[in-house]
Write a structure and sequence with these properties.
With 104 residues, the chain is an all-alpha fold. The chain is built from five helices and no strands.
């Protein structure tokens, strides 16, 4: 119910949730940096697909927290410990954390 109220409020006021805007910004940055990373990355396709999925979720409103966290794990696992992408990945992680923990 809380999720629906948040989405309705964003639509009524004509403004987007700042968490969603931050997530979209972080995803765009990581996607851009991943595209510029030319070294071989075994799971690049997985990372790109999950980035696209998160981007779609963020465009559609407030994303489902459990799905968002699952995508973050897949992205982090696919990118691994590539230091060139670590700052952008950290930005995505911080943006995801703003949505809180999934309902338990």
């Amino acid at each position: 119910m809380r999720k629906e109220a948040t989405e309705r409020r964003a639509v009524v006021l004509g403004q987007e949730d700042p968490r969603v805007l931050g997530l979209r910004r972080a995803i765009t940055r990581l996607h851009r940096e991943l595209a510029g990373y030319r070294a071989r990355l075994a799971d690049r396709q997985i990372a790109e697909e999950e980035l696209a999925a998160v981007e779609t979720m963020a465009r559609e409103g407030v994303p489902e927290v459990a799905r968002l966290r699952g995508s973050l794990l897949l992205i982090a696992g696919a990118i691994g410990s590539v230091s060139a992408l670590s700052e952008a990945l950290t930005e995505v992680r911080k943006a995801v954390e703003l949505f809180g923990a999934p309902p338990g």
